[in-house]
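COURSE: Structural Biology Practicum
ASSIGNMENT: Worksheet 4, Part C
STUDENT ID: 0417
INSTRUCTIONS: Below are two proteins. For each, the amino acid sequence is given first, followed by its structure token string. Answer the questions at the end about the second protein only.

PROTEIN I
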Amino acid sequence: MKLAMGEGGGSAVAELQGLDGAFSFAERLLQRIWRDGEFDRSRAATVDGRGVRILYPGKWNRLGGPDFFNARLELDGRTVCGDVELHLRANDWISHGHREDPKYRNVVLHVVLFPPMEATSPGADGRSIPILALLPLLYRSLEEHAEDDAVERLATPRFSEACEALLALSAADRLTELRARARDRWRVKVGHATKRVERSGWREACHQYALEILGYRFNRGPMLALSTEHPLEEWLRMGGDAGDVLRWYDERPERWNRQAVRPANHPRRRLQQYASWVQAVGDWPSRLQTIAGPDAALRFAPPVGSVSATRRSDCFRRLTADFADNVCGASVGGTRFQTLVCDGFLPLLGATWPENEPALFGFWFAWHPGDLPETIGRWLSELGVVDGREQPSCQGLAQGLLGWILREEERQEQSTACQCWRGT
């Protein structure tokens, strides 16, 4: 792992190794995770063993001084109010000169990403500031957080520059690159699914993926957190009573992001939708697992030909019907259903039945794009790789373009980090 200062020296960046090579994780992502509570709060404890309950994470400060003002916490049952400072590693507290800086005298908790050797950070006047490490508490990998952040920044000039570089290639090379990057993206998704299944088991991994994806962009973290707090068995015991689900929502109003969320994507509505899904098909993870298993009625053969030809095939149509009706009980539709298939069902099956991986990848490549940003669709058209007939927009080309953009962005980040290390 390498650490460097970000652009302008305002934010540290860690260079880490992921499933598809190196990636960067910026300190501002850690700040966002803290703000949104995308970690297991029930297990939060300081390095020296004091329980931490987060009543209010504080107001995010984008200027100088502590990262969050006026947080409210409970440390071993005692309520404390003050500021919170976040770093990727604990010794950044000293290297950044916070110990004697008067702006940091009100810091009551030092939150870091990587677990440190030391138990506390030194404050002014001999104070010892407790340290909370977030990495062991994260629901998702650092790579997944970094990817989501990159997708949200698709409209920045760097992403346009990355697409311009792809446009400079010949049409054939352009398509070759996109297919290669799509394969990389598929491997990453299967890798994430494999880790989730290993950690939580098949049934709970399915349950977690479903709620996380239903949370869409703004509430993926809170929905994933709720899925771990209330496993599938608990939903089944409710018998489809949405009242219990809404009580779970109301218990922690501060965790949900309701700004800029369309009514159809409101977390209350999505929780009710999942309750209906579980009521209709309580054993849906088992049904999903059998689709690609050795005794599956649907015999997989890698699709051949164009995307349109794959979508017209009997296998694709039967697979779509199986997912929509047999697995989801017709409870999920539209682009959210397509995203559920591409980000959840197919990668989970790829992780569990590797012998069917070539066919699963082929269907995933040809699948409908789902909830990917509109920017991706526009660039696919400008690149001339989709024509709306034999080569319509599809998950594979969209993910291939996203993979290309992320790789170019990573090159830029690494170049900037290297310049910062050299002091240029």
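PROTEIN II
(use this one for the questions)
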Amino acid sequence: MDAAAIAALTLSLLLGVYIFLFIFRIVLTWYPQVEGDKFPFNWIVVPTEPLLKPTRKVVPPIGGVDISPIVWVGIMSLIRELLLGQQGLITMALH
């Protein structure tokens, strides 16, 4: 396994973890009483909040529902597919 394949695998794992964390953020929005600064929820809030905060300024809550995590799931999924999908840029370069 060469360095490019390891980098692609690392990027795939990183994007996958972020998608997973954003899905958890979507679930956390259903429970407003959850304190995001307390363990174990801070493990979900801390890495995602730097991306969600500026997104909320561009995409405000609709009907009181924060849709910024949904936007980021879409963005991360698109990036992962464009770069690492079956016909992704990195995948095609490695083969």
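ANSWER KEY EXCERPT:
Q1: The longest helix spans residues 3-28.
Q2: The CA atoms of residues 11 and 35 lie 30 Å apart.
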